[in-house]
Design a protein that fits this description.
Low-confidence stretches: 155-161
Strand order of the largest sheet: 3-4-5
Shape: globular
Strand content: 5-15%
Number of helices: 6
Helix content: 25-40%
Oligomer: single chain
Amino acid sequence: MDYLLEHRKGRCDYTGEDWEEDVIGPIEDGRQIDSLSCIRGRKGTAPVILAKIPGKVPWKIFAYLPLGSYKQCFDTTLWNMAMTKYFYKEYNATLVAMSGDCLEFKVPEPISKDKALQAALDMYAYCCDLDYDTTMGQLADTLTKSTIWTLQWEYVYKAID
């Protein structure tokens, strides 16, 4: 995670953003998210495929339903398994839904304020284009109010370049 965050900080030099002000920001103005967004289409609920995946650990879903390895994207199976395991071990976040462009995790209860900023930074390290169009402070505040965490799948492939 540290390497990825340092990589993200380095991008600020390229974009001209200030890490503390533009990326982190104050921990406020979050919103509550308790419903899945990847199953909603633009005209209502999107078609859904339910699958019972064998196994006792939720991060192995990518071994059965690998995503990535198309167009210019490298094989992300092991990468996604590792990150999903990390979120499960660190935050008890279980992958519950995925689509062609997002991953959604469920946590048993909103995260505590003392862990929220680190969780937001971990999400940003994994996927720098989150669904929230917000600062990490706003995302941290959102995580203290929400049981669903959404990552924009399309940009997960750009996490390591």
